[in-house]
């Protein structure tokens, strides 16, 4: 009886621990400003000497009130990231954000954030947004919504999602908050067709059930990054 009790307790603690470490770890001190010059490599960044920390370590003149250029983007969007690479004081704090500008009919194409949930707030314009669930017996379910100024939508961690401006003559702007200091982004088309070296066209032709010539054409396109 005691053995089974200990087993259940151990299983419960393991499950609890897995939930605790499912996102960025909690800080163990007031702050841990990233030391970009340290040669030590850890999960995150080594802490800068607290005596050398100043207010600028927590500041960035990001100009997020200024419109970004979307004209040079093939997908018609510009994502301005503010993460631990931009503000070293974000290290261990488990949060970041991004301003996203959309040209008329522009989109932030299907992508995932492997380390973060995203909450999106529309600042100007209209957006058609959605995400797709992971594989189930009933397939992959799509959740979509049309958002207007002031509306908020959540994209669960790791799931493929997108935003599209359906208006042909007006831009849109949104602000996204993410539950990681460095959420990462995998743009699906870029990763599949623009990897270096390229994924075998035999593999992709089988996966997408198309001719290899179609895959070769897709891999020959210029797959740009709209995240800056």
From TrEMBL:
Top-level taxon of origin: Eukaryota
Alphabetical keyword list: Apoplast, Disulfide bond, Manganese, Metal-binding, Secreted, Signal
Chain residues that bind oxalate: 108, 113, 118
SMART domains in the cross-refs: Cupin_1
Signal peptide range: 1-22
CDD domains: cupin_OxOx (cd02241)
GO MF annotation terms: manganese ion binding
Lineage: Eukaryota, Viridiplantae, Streptophyta, Embryophyta, Tracheophyta
The protein's name in its UniProt record: Germin-like protein
Locations listed in the record: Secreted, Extracellular space, Apoplast
Disulfide bonds listed in the record: 32-47
Record's keyword annotation contains Signal: yes
One cellular-component annotation, GO: apoplast
Xref: InterPro entries: Cupin_1, Germin, Germin_Mn-BS, RmlC-like_jellyroll, RmlC_Cupin_sf
Binding site for Mn(2+): 111, 113, 118, 161
Stored Pfam families: Cupin_1
Organism, scientific name: Eragrostis curvula (weeping love grass)
Primary subcellular site in the record, as a coarse category: secreted
Domain (Cupin type-1): residue spans on this chain: 62-216
Family in the record: Belongs to the germin family.
């Amino acid at each position: 009886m005691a053995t089974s009790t200990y087993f259940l307790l151990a299983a419960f603690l393991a499950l609890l621990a897995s939930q605790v470490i499912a996102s960025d770890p909690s800080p163990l001190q007031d702050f841990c400003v990233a030391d970009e010059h340290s040669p030590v490599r850890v999960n995150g960044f080594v802490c800068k000497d607290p005596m050398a920390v100043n207010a600028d370590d927590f500041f960035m003149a990001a100009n997020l009130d200024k419109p970004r250029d979307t004209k040079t983007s093939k997908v018609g969007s510009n994502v301005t990231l503010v993460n631990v690479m931009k503000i070293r004081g974000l290290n261990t704090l488990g949060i970041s954000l991004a301003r996203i500008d959309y040209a008329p009919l522009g989109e932030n194409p299907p992508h995932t954030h492997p380390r973060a949930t995203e909450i999106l707030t529309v600042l100007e314009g209209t957006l058609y947004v959605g995400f797709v669930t992971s594989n189930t017996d009933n397939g992959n379910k799509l959740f979509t919504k049309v958002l207007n100024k002031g509306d908020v939508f959540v994209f669960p961690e790791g799931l493929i999602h997108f935003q599209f401006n359906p208006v042909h003559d007006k831009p849109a702007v949104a602000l996204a908050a993410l539950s990681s200091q460095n959420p990462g982004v995998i743009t699906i088309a870029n990763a599949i067709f623009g990897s270096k070296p390229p994924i075998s066209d035999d593999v992709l032709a089988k996966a997408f059930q198309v001719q290899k010539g179609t895959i070769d054409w897709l891999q020959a396109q210029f797959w740009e990054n709209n995240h800056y």
